[in-house]
């Protein structure tokens, strides 16, 4: 989340660091309000991330790992800390920066300029994959066609696949992202408030892998507070981009974020406590909450039809998913008949064609795009 302030609480100049008892404390640590000097803060912050990595066995010597690099503070700090830990503890990782250019003028073009500087600062190779090249749509075009309200849905689905494709192109099967403890706790709250128990169960997993996909995802900042990431970037004078995305943030996540901030102000440990609760929830076997429409249908009808899920994917109906299943449209690995990205793109193409026919303008352009989509193979 770009644009945040440096929020470590100030301490009296006379106070000594509670860890080394030698240097002056310069901050109260957001996670536990401990008074710390800069050096001890760097040390506890980095050591906690090292412990997270080793406890979850995230890496093996020789692994090639792509860092999802947006140029924002989380992924910039992630690149910096991984470089430091890789050298300090001899992880023997080959680290690569992987950026997705969603095509958002005045936002992503500027943040990618930051990633290009990071490439030189951290001495890591950089690969940039653009939505326009992959999908023939930029986010600016998507928003002008589908509106701003669902922009996060499109962007999330397309980015997930773009990161996978970028990693596959580089021969890498592990992508790390800068999702932090606040993101995790927000997700737990959101899923709890929505009664989304399927997602709730998975919301605190550090290492994930979509069914059928060879690409793993992990979150080494799972236990790192956002405020501490900002402090680290600030004290280390890291070069990062801090502007909010031009398009609307996911509305409900924004509400969960505000709630979390209010809770954190009263009780800083609540972020860790929510993650702890998320990790230890034992849910009873699920009962489906059928809709009336679903209840009215015959069983045979339900098994035969393709159901469009809320996230835009299409279920395989009564058939079982087989590992290695491929999207019938683009051939990319997916757990569904048609991958989520293709479903969303097909909807966009229909909208664009409809708008064009209705207005009797640019029909050629829409037809050409539809044809391109039909021929898409990655
Ligand atoms: N365009 C992108 N290219 C590559 N990775 C990305 C991109 N956008 C997001 N990510 C990855 O997903 C993580 C979470 O992104 P999100 O936009 O939700 O949060 P953020 O707090 O703004 O992250 P950051 O501060 O790193 O921009 C990022 O830290 C990064 O690792």
Can you put this structure into words, describing what you see?
Helix 7 packs across helix 10, helix 7 crosses helix 11 and helix 14 runs antiparallel to helix 15. The protein is built from 15 helices and 8 strands. The protein is of the alpha/beta class and 378 residues long. Helices cover 48% and strands 8% of the residues. The longest helix is centred in the C-terminal third of the chain and has 20 residues. The radius of gyration is 23 Å and the shape is globular. The C terminus is likely disordered. It has a domain of 241 residues: 3-Layer(aba) Sandwich (Rossmann fold), CATH 3.40.50. It binds adenosine-5'-triphosphate. Adenosine-5'-triphosphate (ATP) binds next to helix 2 and strand 4. Pathway: tRNA modification; 5-methoxycarbonylmethyl-2-thiouridine-tRNA biosynthesis. Pfam families: ATP_bind_3, zn-ribbon_14.
User: What is the β-strand count?
Assistant: 8
Low-confidence stretches: 300-321, 357-378
N-C termini distance: 31 Å
CATH topology of the domain at 40-280: Rossmann fold
Q: What is the SS-derived class?
A: alpha/beta
Strand residue percentage: 5-15%
CATH architecture of the domain at 40-280: 3-Layer(aba) Sandwich
The CATH class of the domain at 40-280 turns out to be Alpha Beta
Count the helices. How many?
Answer: 15
Bound molecules: adenosine-5'-triphosphate
What would you report as the Rg, rounded to the nearest angstrom? 23 Å
For the biggest sheet, the summary is: 6 strands, mixed
CATH homolog superfamily of the domain at 40-280: HUPs
Main sheet: strand order: 5-4-3-6-8-7
Approximate helicity band: 40-55%
| Mean model confidence by pLDDT | 84
Large-scale geometry: globular
Topology pattern, helix = H, strand = E: EEHEHEHEHHHEHHEEHHHHHHH
């Amino acid at each position: 989340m770009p644009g945040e302030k440096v929020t470590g609480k100030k301490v009296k100049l006379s106070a000594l660091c509670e860890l080394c008892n030698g240097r002056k404390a310069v901050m109260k640590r957001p996670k536990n309000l401990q008074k710390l000097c800069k050096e001890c803060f760097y040390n506890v912050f980095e050591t906690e991330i090292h412990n997270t990595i080793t406890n979850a066995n995230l890496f093996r010597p020789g692994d090639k790992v792509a860092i999802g690099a947006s140029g924002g503070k989380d992924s910039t700090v992630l690149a910096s800390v991984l470089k430091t830990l890789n050298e300090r503890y001899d992880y023997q990782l080959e680290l690569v920066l992987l950026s997705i250019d969603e095509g958002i003028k005045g936002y992503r073009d500027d943040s990618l300029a930051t990633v290009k500087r990071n490439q030189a600062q951290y001495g890591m190779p950089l690969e940039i994959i653009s939505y326009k090249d992959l999908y023939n749509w930029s986010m600016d075009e998507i928003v002008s066609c589908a509106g701003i309200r669902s922009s996060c849905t499109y962007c999330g689905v397309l980015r997930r696949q773009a990161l996978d494709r970028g990693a596959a192109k580089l021969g890498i099967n592990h992508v790390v992202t800068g999702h932090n403890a606040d993101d995790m706790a927000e997700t737990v709250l959101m899923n709890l408030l929505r009664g989304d128990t399927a997602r709730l169960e998975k919301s605190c997993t550090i290492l994930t892998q979509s069914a059928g996909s060879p690409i793993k995802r992990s979150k080494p900042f799972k236990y790192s507070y956002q405020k501490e990431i900002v402090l680290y970037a600030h004290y280390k004078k890291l070069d990062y981009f801090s502007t909010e995305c031009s398009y609307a943030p996911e509305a409900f996540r924004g509400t969960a974020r505000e709630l979390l901030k209010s809770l954190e102000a009263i009780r800083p440990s609540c972020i860790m406590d929510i993650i702890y609760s998320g990790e230890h929830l034992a849910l009873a076997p699920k009962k489906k909450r059928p809709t009336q429409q679903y209840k009215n249908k015959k069983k045979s009808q339900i098994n035969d039809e393709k159901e469009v899920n809320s996230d835009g994917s299409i279920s395989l109906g009564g058939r079982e998913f087989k590992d290695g299943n491929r999207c019938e449209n683009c051939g990319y690995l997916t757990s569904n008949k048609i991958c989520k990205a293709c479903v969303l793109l097909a909807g966009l193409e229909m909208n664009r064609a409809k708008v064009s026919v209705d207005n009797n303008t640019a029909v050629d352009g829409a037809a050409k795009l539809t044809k391109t989509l039909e021929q898409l193979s990655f």
